[in-house]
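ingest -> validate -> predict -> emit
validate: passed (alphabet ok, no gaps, 562 aa)
predict: started
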Amino acid sequence: MNGNFSNNSSVPTGFPLRLTLNTLGLLLILKCWFFISLHNKMSWLYLLSYVQDAFLFMVNYLLFIYCFQTGKWLYPLGFMLFVLFFIPISALTFTYTFFLMDLYHFPMNIFSISADSLCFFITYFTSPFTIAGFLGIYAVLFSISYLVPKRLAFVNWIKPACLLLTLLFLPSSLKPGINPILFSIQEQIIAYRNADTNLKHLEEPNAEIADNTDFGFADKKFDTIPTIHSNYKRVIVLVMEGLNYKTFTQKSKEDQNSFLNKYQKHIKQFTNYHTLNIDSFTSLIAILNSIFVPYSSHVKKEAFDFTDKQTNLVRFFNHNHFTTFFTTSLGLQQAYFVPDMPEWKTTLFMEKMDTVVHYKCINSMKIENSCEDLTLLNNMVDTIAAHDQIFVFNEMVYGHVNEWTEKKGVEVVEYYNLYFNRLIEKLSGKQILDSTLIFILSDHGPKEDAYNTDNYHIPLLVFSTGIDTTANNSFTSHLDFKNILIELMTGTPQIYGNQPFFTYGNSVEMVYGLATPDGSHIFINNRLRQTKGNLSDRNEYYKLNKHYQQYLHYFASLKAKI
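emit:
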């Protein structure tokens, strides 16, 4: 029968061994394909990750088949456990290979994946065709493994092969695992040892128990929409993807042809500007709606979509007789992630990507369907020139995933500088540059480390041919953006900055924190109950734990009032 033992070896053979070997063979082909096809200096990670993957499959086989061979009644139990663990291990291993470069920089703990995150992944990173293909491969793999390879003459090589694999695996285990299963196990062990039991896990928000705590520093939306006299007919906001202040500024200064160097006499810098969320959607909400969203972008939108119904910058510009124009070179799938979508008077998304010839496009995942930002530059400038007064908000895409630099062969900061230079040239060619005010900022910094304050510190540059270029060093954030914009549009001083703000880490793990103007910062991982920061007083962390919970209740109370 399948799963029988060979006559000259204590090692079980049959279906479990065939399935393991066939899976490892298929996985090796996939890893080698990525290793060879990707012209990336980090492509060796595919080979290293194969060692970790193979070790996991080996452990699963030895633990449930080899160790359960001692009795007839034990083998069926071992076989059942083998299959039960084989399916998620293989599914995760094959899936993460397609995202390896992004996951290496942005590791994921599988134990932090919520039902909302899983639904989000299935909806926006897969398709029915992908799922059907995945199930089809499983069916073929399982079927073939009952028969092929027919002879297992090399079965006596398994023990030395396992020993060699273990020796190769051990050095790689000294650092966080590339394989998300290994990484998650490592992190869970460390977390169990270091958890602060005095920290409480955040509870579901309850609007009915919201207290009278003043959260004005986290909720800065308009009380009423003001009527203003603008010194500019055109206001453009360009939101770069995933760049922090340090990276953008240093690389721009090193390039003599960069936008920052070329137009420094017309650029005002805000040197101490920050994001609150390391997520694109919630960062855009902070910019446009001036309120901190205490959730991941990957939870159900119903938790925070009420913010679209409050006063916001789109409504402000509509009130002041500007055409409001949202544009992005992402596909129509991005409409779901645009704040205040019903209020924009006109929008432009990337459609008919198959007709694009001169620019690079990505369609490997539904959520990433897009073409590079330069694709729609001419369309955007023509629209700007066609209106007497217009507010343009451009959510840029280049660099959102590593695939962009692999396809285009241009480093992210270099690409953005090229884009900004071309924009200025085209606006000047249309003779509308002098009447245009341009804001350039990032949505957030790199996602891989929610505890790194550099990833919250982002660039904000303002371009105008007649602007005062004195740098602003105030401690500011996305919540201050509307007041900064109004001040520079009108020349009327506004109050902003020098207040603390909450932070929320990346899409997968809930890491919340507090940053203050004096440079102090503290972070709490809600699931692991771990803390990091530059304050030694534990009471500050416990205070944040309580204060953030109160803000969740406050945020829920705002929703209840709509």
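Confidence is low (pLDDT under 50) at residues 1-12.
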